[in-house]
């Protein structure tokens, strides 16, 4: 076969050739988009100027390093994080629709963030904790309400959609209750936006996402085993319940961290794993290609949001909603055609 | 069937009584609560006092609007649930209301929606297109129909939001409309939309008999002499008309059409005409109670009624999925 096998002592990693090529292409696309993102702004900076500005030289160094770079970095990291979360939930529910935004986890994380803003005052840590708690409680509620039919199936997803509707209603009630300044800030944030992202605001989230990614790397082997079916996973020595719990925790952490900073950005988690899976022609839902696809998708969506109505920057959530909804309809059309 | 007629009639009377109470409360409760005796006096002995003006010009029109919109949403929910035999079907969830809202936003952007008649026509066209699209994508299973509707709704909502952010005057015009509410809607001329709703409700009552035959299956309906295709077309036109007009006057309000048939199904005992009669009473009751909640939930102002109905309707959807959804999988 064309697959590459790396060995180091008793550890070995098999790398599929196609996955490697696809990953490299995705990284290249992400880098190209990132350079474009660094060049584009109120004024156009040539790529060479932008790159030297990134190193700290030239007139536009401040603009590129303090305004554009954090936004580009946030789009890449948050996109990857949402892609990972989507891959986790689609693996657990074994359904391409089982992504965290469809089943209400975004809305729940947003509820948590809103409560920590309106009740506690909303420091960065409070926001992160509030939205992770909100996401976890929502995940638990959806899980217990859909018990009896197992974790898979459309029923879980429709229950998640109902949960999403309730939480969206609660969120708009909180926003309407709040004082005007908080309400204005929360409304801008409610559609998911990377406008005004700064280094100071993303350090902690990047750290959290990094730790969660490391956790997922250690779990990925077991996740692959469990994708083969429950019985096979148990016989090959995977502690299923503990694995699922850890995976859900990591997935909620990935979505909630992004929601705490940028608001609920929908559909990246839904689309990225499936696109990544098709590109890599893999059997399950591979987390690595999901993460890379997510990064490319969110950065591209954010650039579209900035370009579409320039000089006004749309919230990126508006773009992902419109594109992602079309994707969802396509997914359903395809499933209808299947006999 | 005959023997439970008194029970059904009694339930109907209870619904009428509840509707009268809800309507009375809707006229009297608000930022400024008015005693029931004063309501009587506002019409019998109008003195031009502030309370009388509030009652005659704001509270009563708003209550009438709530009754018509509630009946329209409930009736369209019952029609579509009966026709598709899908307990999860609802014009709001199926994207029909989103289609109407999207058409009105686009019309506003193109300066087509200035006249009320144009707005109603746009809402109807948008609702029809959305209904056709969702039905063609999701017809194979109840849950898939819901998903198709949710997907289409979110696309249309995203594009509408984009358009509104692009054009500030459209944004301004649709800021209040885009969240379903009865507040402030009583100020516009309601004669045309409300008479449309009343006509469509009469039509809905008229199709219940052929629909009753259709529920037994297409072949049975044929044998009983029903014209299946014609009934089906009439029902689809009525569903979109009711949902579109209700959306055009009150904005998108989801979940009323979902909840009401579930409340009415057990007492109706499989009879579509009775189901429709209960629905037309329970829909207004639910919407008026939600609207009263919308007025008193916040001390600072009003919550849009669509927020209240979503909060009440989400649990009903979960309950319905747990109860009916398993069979469909």
TrEMBL record, chain A:
A GO CC annotation recorded here is: plasma membrane
Subcellular localization, as worded in the UniProt entry: Cell membrane
Q: How does it sit in the membrane?
A: Multi-pass membrane protein
The membrane spanning regions, by residue number, are 21-43, 72-92, 113-144, 156-176, 204-223, 243-272, 284-306, 312-333
Q: Which Gene3D superfamilies match?
A: ABC transporter involved in vitamin B12 uptake, BtuC (1.10.3470.10)
Which CDD domains does the UniProt entry name for this protein?
TM_ABC_iron-siderophores_like (cd06550)
What Pfam families does the record tag this protein with? FecCD
Could you give a single Gene Ontology term from the biological process aspect? siderophore-iron import into cell
Q: Please name the InterPro entries in this protein's record.
A: ABC_BtuC-like, ABC_transptr_permease_BtuC
Q: Does the keyword Transport apply?
A: yes
Q: Which GO terms describe its molecular function?
A: transmembrane transporter activity
Task: Could you list this entry's UniProt keywords, alphabetically sorted.
Answer: Cell membrane, Membrane, Transmembrane, Transmembrane helix, Transport
For this chain, the family text in UniProt reads: Belongs to the binding-protein-dependent transport system permease family. FecCD subfamily.
Q: Which PANTHER family does this one have?
A: FERRIC ENTEROBACTIN TRANSPORT SYSTEM PERMEASE PROTEIN (PTHR30472), FERRIC ENTEROBACTIN TRANSPORT SYSTEM PERMEASE PROTEIN FEPG (PTHR30472:SF24)
**Descriptive protein name:** Iron complex transport system permease protein
What organism, scientifically named, is this protein from? Answer: Sphaerisporangium krabiense
Source organism phylogeny:
Bacteria, Bacillati, Actinomycetota, Actinomycetes, Streptosporangiales
From TrEMBL, chain B:
Query: Which species is listed as the source?
Result: Sphaerisporangium krabiense
State the Gene3D superfamilies in the record. Answer: ABC transporter involved in vitamin B12 uptake, BtuC
Which SUPFAM superfamilies does this chain map to? ABC transporter involved in vitamin B12 uptake, BtuC
Indicate what this protein is called per its UniProt record. Answer: Iron complex transport system permease protein
Q: Which family does it belong to?
A: Belongs to the binding-protein-dependent transport system permease family. FecCD subfamily.
Q: Where in the cell is it found?
A: Cell membrane
GO biological process: one example:
siderophore-iron import into cell
Q: Which GO terms describe its molecular function?
A: transmembrane transporter activity
Is Transmembrane there in the keyword field?
A: yes
């Amino acid at each position: 076969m064309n697959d590459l096998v790396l060995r180091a002592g008793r550890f070995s990693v098999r790398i599929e050739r196609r996955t490697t090529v696809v990953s490299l292409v995705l990284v290249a696309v992400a880098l190209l988009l990132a350079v474009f993102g660094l060049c584009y702004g109120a004024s156009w900076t040539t790529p060479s100027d932008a790159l030297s500005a990134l190193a700290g030289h030239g007139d536009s160094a401040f603009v590129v390093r303090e305004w554009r770079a954090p936004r580009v970095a946030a789009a890449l990291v948050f996109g990857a994080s949402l892609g990972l979360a989507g891959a986790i939930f689609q693996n657990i529910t074994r359904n391409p629709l089982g992504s965290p935004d469809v089943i209400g986890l975004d809305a729940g994380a947003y509820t948590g963030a809103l409560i920590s803003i309106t009740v506690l005052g909303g420091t960065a840590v409070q926001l992160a904790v509030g939205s992770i708690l909100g996401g976890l409680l929502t995940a638990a509620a959806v899980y217990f309400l859909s018990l009896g039919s197992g974790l898979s199936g459309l029923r879980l997803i429709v229950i998640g959609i109902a949960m999403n509707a309730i939480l969206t209603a609660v969120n708009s009630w909180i926003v309407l209750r709040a004082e005007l300044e908080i309400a204005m800030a929360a409304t801008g944030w409610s559609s998911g936006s990377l406008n005004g992202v700064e280094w100071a605001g993303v350090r902690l989230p990047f750290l959290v996402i990094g730790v969660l990614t490391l956790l997922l790397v250690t779990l990925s082997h077991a996740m692959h085993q469990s994708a083969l079916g429950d019985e096979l996973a148990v016989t090959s020595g995977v502690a299923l319940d503990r694995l699922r719990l850890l995976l859900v925790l990591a997935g909620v952490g990935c979505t909630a961290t992004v929601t705490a900073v940028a608001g609920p950005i929908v559909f990246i988690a839904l689309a990225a794993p499936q696109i990544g899976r098709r590109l890599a022609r893999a059997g399950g839902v591979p987390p690595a290609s999901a993460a890379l696809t997510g990064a490319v998708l969110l950065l591209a969506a954010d650039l579209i949001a900035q370009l579409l109505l320039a000089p006004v920057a749309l919230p990126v959530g508006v773009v992902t909603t419109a594109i992602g909804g079309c994707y969802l309809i396509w997914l359903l059309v395809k499933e209808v055609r299947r006999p | 069937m005959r023997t439970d007629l008194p029970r059904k009639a009694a339930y109907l009377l209870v619904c009428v009584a509840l509707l009268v109470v809800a309507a009375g409360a809707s006229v009297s409760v608000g930022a400024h609560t008015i005693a029931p005796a004063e309501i009587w006096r506002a019409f019998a002995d109008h003195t031009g006092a502030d309370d009388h003006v509030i009652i005659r010009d704001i509270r009563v029109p708003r209550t009438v609007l709530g009754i018509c919109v509630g009946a329209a949403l409930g009736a369209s929910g019952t029609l579509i649930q009966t026709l598709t035999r899908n307990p999860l079907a609802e014009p709001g969830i199926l994207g029909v209301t989103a289609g109407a809202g999207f058409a009105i936003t686009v019309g506003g952007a193109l300066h087509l929606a200035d006249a009320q008649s144009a707005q109603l026509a746009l809402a109807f066209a948008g609702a029809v297109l959305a209904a056709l699209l969702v039905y063609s994508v999701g017809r194979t299973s109840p849950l898939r129909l819901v998903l198709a509707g949710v997907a289409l709704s979110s696309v249309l909502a995203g594009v509408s939001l984009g358009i509104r952010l692009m054009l500030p005057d459209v944004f301004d015009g649709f800021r209040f409309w885009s969240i379903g509410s009865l507040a402030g809607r009583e100020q516009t001329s309601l004669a045309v939309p409300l008479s449309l709703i009343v006509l469509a409700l009469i039509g809905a009552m008229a199709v219940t008999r052929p629909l009753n035959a259709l529920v037994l299956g297409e072949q049975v309906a044929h044998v009983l002499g029903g014209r299946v295709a014609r009934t089906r077309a009439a029902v689809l036109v009525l569903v979109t008309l009711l949902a579109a007009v209700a959306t055009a006057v009150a904005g998108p309000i989801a979940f009323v059409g979902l909840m009401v048939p579930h409340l009415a199904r057990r007492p109706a005992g499989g009879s579509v005409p009775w189901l429709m009669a209960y629905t037309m009473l329970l829909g207004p009751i639910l919407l008026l109670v939600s609207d009263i909640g919308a007025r008193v939930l916040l001390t600072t102002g009003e919550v849009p009624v669509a927020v209240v109905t979503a909060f009440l309707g989400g649990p009903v959807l979960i309950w319905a999925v747990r109860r009916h959804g398993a069979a469909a999988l």
